[in-house]
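The instructor's notes for this session suggest beginning with a concrete chain rather than abstract definitions. Hand out the sequence below and ask the class to guess, before any prediction is shown, which regions might be ordered.
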Amino acid sequence: MTAFFALTTSLLWGLADFGGGLLTRRTPALTVVVVSQAVAAAVLGAIVVATGGWSEAGPRLWFAFAAGAVGPVALLCFYQALARGPMGVVSPLATLSVTVPVGVGLFLGERPGPLQFAGIAVAVAGVVLAGGPQLRGAAVQRRTILLTLVAALGFGAVFALIAEASTDVTGLFLALFVQRLTSVAVGAGALAVSVRRGGRAVPRSGFPWASLPALAFVGLADVAANGTYAIAARHGPVTVAAVLASLYPVVTALAARGFLRERLRTVQAAGAGLALVGTLLLATG
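After discussion, reveal the predicted structure:
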């Protein structure tokens, strides 16, 4: 069950990143984040009301609040790092986020077997390679590396926090709702500051209403991924769930290949293969 839900997480996050990447080509990144998260928050709010989720309110919601505050900051750092480039360095480096939940799992006493340790090493190596790391070229600015590491730390923190935010499915809906409301508030604040400094909230042609379904998909896929990850981490070792969930860059690369006809570099294809081998080792270990 852990492997199934963790791999579902990687699929949803990979597709959400692919969709978000396409949308930010035409719409400011902060606007994409705020609108997509607002749609997800509205849907989750309706689910919470329908299921009586408010009855599950308790101290664990502070974990959801923290995840919601950290998430937009991590995304903003990640987008800024990508803007400074090169993507071939930034994207693989961001996968270091997996070290946070894996470290938490080890700290809490989880001890994967030898086969699972091998699977973790192979899968992480595969994910890094699937990002198409840039092995040569101009030196990367120190600020770009710093932004990427902050983003990785933030993404990893969200992994760890959302896993602790609830103990049952009803409570999970409430936790995800609180997370999304917080994300919208933080993102909207950042967007307001950006506009005040001369940035744009929407393209010159106006709000892209035709993109609203795609924005909704990105937001809902992202929140569903958080939910499936929380379930995976609850039903099995966090160390395994985190690594399998971190395979989303492979999904993004394959989506670009399938929908945009982007050709995978040899190193990316090799990385996808290694990620698959690591997945099999983790699932069978």
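Then share the key points. The chain is about 75% helix and 0% strand. Residues 47 and 173 are 7 Å apart (CA to CA).
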